Amino acid sequence: MEKAQVVVIGGGPGGYVAAIRAAQLGASVVLVEKDKVGGTCLNRGCIPTKTLLASTHVLDVINRAAEFGVEVKDVQPKFSRMMERKEQVVAQLRQGIRQLLKANKVKFVKGEATLVSPRIIRVEGDKGSEEIEADKVIISTGSTPVRPPLFDFSHAAVLTSDEVLKLGEPPKSLLIVGSGVIGLEFACVFNSLGTQVTMVEMMDQILPTESKMIASHMQRILDRRGVVFHIQTKVEGIKDYSSNGVTATLNSGEEIVAEKMLVSIGRRPNTKGYGFENLGIAMGPAGNIIVDAKMRTSVEGIYAIGDAVGGIMLAHVASAEGIVAAENATGHESVLDYSVVPSCVYTSPEIASVGLTADKAQTLGKEVKIGKFPFAASGKALTAGEDAGFAQLVIDRATDRVLGAQIIGPHATELIAEVALAVRWGLTAEQIGTTIHAHPTLAESIMEAAENAQGRAIHTAW
Ligand code: FAD
After folding, report:
1. Whose C-alpha lies nearest to ligand 1, atom 43?
2. Cis link prior to 342 (omega < 30° from 0)?
3. Which of the residues 155, 316, 332, 439 is marked catalytic?
4. Alpha helix ranges (H) inside 196-251
5. Which three-class secondary structure state does DSSP give residue 417?
6. H-assigned helices in 79-178
7. What's the distance, CA 148 to chain centroid?
8. How many angstroms separate the alpha carbon of residue 345 from the centre of ligand 1?
9. 9: pLDDT confidence band, cut at 50, 70 and 90?
10. Which domains, ranges and CATH numbers included, belong to the chain?
11. pLDDT tens digits, 257-285
12. Cα–ligand 1 centroid distance for 453 (angstroms)
């Protein structure tokens, strides 16, 4: 029987990072993956969606070319080429991960892993069944889209994010159930491609995990682009499935006819059927594996990370948890600090937040001041013709420390890194405001927001 000090189950951004970290620390490591390395993030999530968004961004810019003094005739989006490009980007990154695993001497085993005992992993692969004995096991089996029984997912019109990424043509109309990050990113892709997009959200705002102010700003922008929203509304069922699509009934009494329907109402941890429950690994109500700050499960020697443990289901969180689990599994002491996790939405414009909102800070008993800067006052944003939105810093009035930020605007997902660093290391608004930022850059907006909080902003009068 093959033996390894660490066996990692699942090769997504949690699992492959854990495997590489454990190997860096000198362990013999086997990574078992039943499908393709990179997991959801690389094959069905972060990267494919961002590649499509990059294509539709090019289309959006070309459609505005005249504004920039460039005449373009006959703009023809080619969806099939966009999808091909997506596959090429994914394949290149997948190849990169395979090389990294090899370079770090991580043995890759293709097959579905089941825990037979806390130390024995059975792998069913193309070539049959094998068993591996491990000193430590790291579970990183990820998640899959929630498919509520209300909808018939065997019908060609009813899709999750997995199937949307395989479409041959953009639909003429798309009903999106759920307006979280995934729903909104697809809304932007298909709105740019000319699809009539309708979004139904049962909560009282789109992007329920973001601040109300940011969410309503985003909704107004998409509303102007023709996306139709039904907020605080539920899809009660599908009245009709036909070869042309679906007719959905809403609790408001309205009906929506759409060629395709994307159900993006959340994801469920992949934790059933792999022997975890037989070993008594404690699970939460959502099927998430319960872990402590060292990513240890209730069973000695077994760790779990990423979407499988629920919590913040993001690739960078899975990777950070992977590093913590690998360090603990190889005899080091490591815990994860979740207080600074940037959250990004790659819509147009982008949204990013980190740390505390003003409301949250106040509920924690902190008196805050706000520093704000509108992109309409940013030279760089105006040169790019992307002046919608603002950057806002939440600052502790007593200490001047930056507690958090909410940004909606161009490259918000890049800008948030500076604030994440500030929040993580307790930097003050003064420290950010007195650091020279290059001009013209979008990053100046963070400096300006910090100066604004101190009443010494040059480029804003509010
Ligand atoms: P996964 O990536 O799901 O990987 C789990 C792996 O385990 C899979 O490859 C699976 O095949 C394998 N596996 C499962 N069971 C077994 C078994 N028994 N044996 C062997 N292998 C097994 N996050 C971001 O941070 N930024 C984004 O922009 C972003 N965009 C997203 C867009 C979409 C459309 C979706 C769906 C998700 C997006 N996410 C994004 C979320 C991100 O993809 C996940 O949080 C991340 O992939 C979780 O990583 P993981 O390693 O825990 O699990």
Report:
1. 41
2. no
3. 439
4. 212-224
5. helix
6. 79-103, 161-164
7. 21
8. 17
9. very high
10. 2-145+268-329 (3.50.50.60), 158-265 (3.50.50.60), 343-453 (3.30.390.30)
11. 999 999 999 999 999 999 999 999 999 99
12. 39
